[in-house]
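Hey, I'm writing a tutorial for new members on how sequence and structure tokens pair up, and I'd like a real worked example in the thread rather than a made-up one. If someone can provide the structure for the chain below, I'll link this post from the tutorial.
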Amino acid sequence: MASIWESRPGRYTAQVNAGGKRQSKTFSTKAEAKRWARHLEHAVDEGKRPTKDAALTALAEEYLAALMETKPPSRSKLAAIRIISEHIGRMPVSQIDVAAIRDFARQRRNGGAGPATILMDLSYIGTILRHGGALAGVDTAQALAHLASARAVLGASGGVSRPDERKRRPTDAELLALRDFWAKRRRGIPMWPVTQFAIATAMRLSEITRIRWADLDLDARTVVIRDRKHPRSKKGNDQTVPLLCGPTVIGGEVVDPLAIIDSMRREAEVIFPFDPRTVSTGFTRGVAACGIDDLRFHDLRHDGVSRLFEAGYSIEQVSLVSGHRDWNMLRRYTQLAPESLHRD
């Protein structure tokens, strides 16, 4: 029978009697401690000695199973881990060295992956080794050290690099072209109101399709975004944001996000009851049909943040709308138009 206790604030220790020998390990969450203990007890029940090595794919499975207990991983994360498993999943952790990581990077590069994508892959490998190894009771310290060395070598040679900061903003002409295109297609998702709302609020698409009628305050002109994206907190990061009327003007018309909300039917708990993937697909198709080059739905968030700065809002005020925690992150989403600096 496993024993689990909070050994110090925010740290949980699990102890298991494994074949007459006590084994213990400390984790940052109680769920991880329980999972490790169950894994070890199962091994003992099956008459197996706790493994000191395992294939990388086994650690990936442990990591994903633990994620499923709290929040399902994103499609992009699942796709990346699948690719990693296909390339080096069968390799035992003890054999992961600098040469193995460099060979993986070479395979990905030959398959068309760029330096930024490969860097993200290596980041996921590190996550799998750290968390999956802890859950499976496998020592991954040496593999992690080799991974760090390989990243340094690949970084120096240009084999991996951070993605270029995206600076794309839609022009008014492009937005009006999209408006006219969608006006001819009256069925389905109201793409133009959703697009206007995205710019006026600087919200992510996932946030737009998650806000609820119950969280709308008409008098204060605010709405609560539940579980807003945060670098550390996955849940509970609720934020009340203002619905500003004025900073966004498209084609000479002021966009009022509250008026857009008022135009939506109260047919569901959420205000915009649409699948974000369907909205994204509809936007991509509209962009292609209008002959617009390299414009993504997320660029609307960039545009919204930039419009706030151009309207004279301070860093603190803009961060209250966008949800960014510091200026360095906020800067990545801000591409000011030079002409906006002129004052009457």
